[in-house]
Amino acid sequence: MPFELRVTPGEFLARVRGWGRDDFASTTEALRRIGEDPRLAPGMPVLMDVRELDYLATPPEVAAFASDSASQGLFAGHRVALLVRRGTQFGVAKSFAEKSGRTGARTEVFAEPELALAWLQSVE
Fold first, then answer.
1. Which of 35, 45, 84, 123 has the highest Cβ tally under 10 A?
2. Chain centroid to CA 118
3. Strands 14-20 and 3-7
4. Structural domains of the chain, with CATH
5. Which residues touch 26 (CB under 8 Å, ≥6 apart)?
6. What backbone phi and psi angles, to 5 degrees, belong to 10?
7. CB burial class (10 A; 0-12, 13-18, 19+) of residue 106?
8. How do residues 19-48 score in pLDDT, each as one tens digit?
C-alpha cells in the first residue's frame, strides 16, 4: 500500500506518508490500518504528507472518508495536519477537513510543511 506510518522515539508526532497511485478501497484500508497501529499513541498529533499521492477522491468518496468509522481512529483521535499540493488536491483535502470536522475530527490542510508543523505544535 502506498501509505506508511513512521513514529520516531522522542518526536512529539507521528508521520504518515502517502505516495503513488491508489484508489478508494486501498486508501480506506491503509487509513484503518494506520489508525489501529499500536505505535500511534492516543492523542498523538499526525503530520500526513500526501503531496506525492496521485489519487484524488471523488466527492462521494470524500464524504465516505469523512464519515467512515474505519478511518476515524486516525482522524477523530488525533490532530491531523494534511500536507498537500496546491490546486485540486488542496481543494479536495479542504472539503474532507470540513466534512470530517462535523464528526469531531481536528484536521487542517496545509501546502507548507512549516505551517503544518507549527499548527501541530500549538496548544489548543
1. 84
2. 16
3. antiparallel
4. 3-121 (3.30.750)
5. 1, 2
6. 90, -15
7. middle
8. 999 999 999 899 889 988 999 998 999 999
- Radius of gyration over every alpha carbon of the chain, rounded to an integer in angstroms: 13
Please give the single-letter amino acid code of residue 30: A
Element (H, E) at 79: strand 79-83
Residue type, 72: Q
How many residues are given for the chain? 124
| pLDDT confidence bin for 124, thresholds 50/70/90 | low
Sign of CA dihedral 92, 105, 21, 26: negative
| pLDDT tens digit sequence for 60-99 | 999 988 886 556 668 878 999 999 999 999 999 999 999 9
Query: Are the C-beta atoms of 62 and 102 separated by less than 8 Å?
Result: no
- CA angle at residue 112 from 111 to 114, to 5 degrees? 150
Read off the amino acid at residue 21.
R
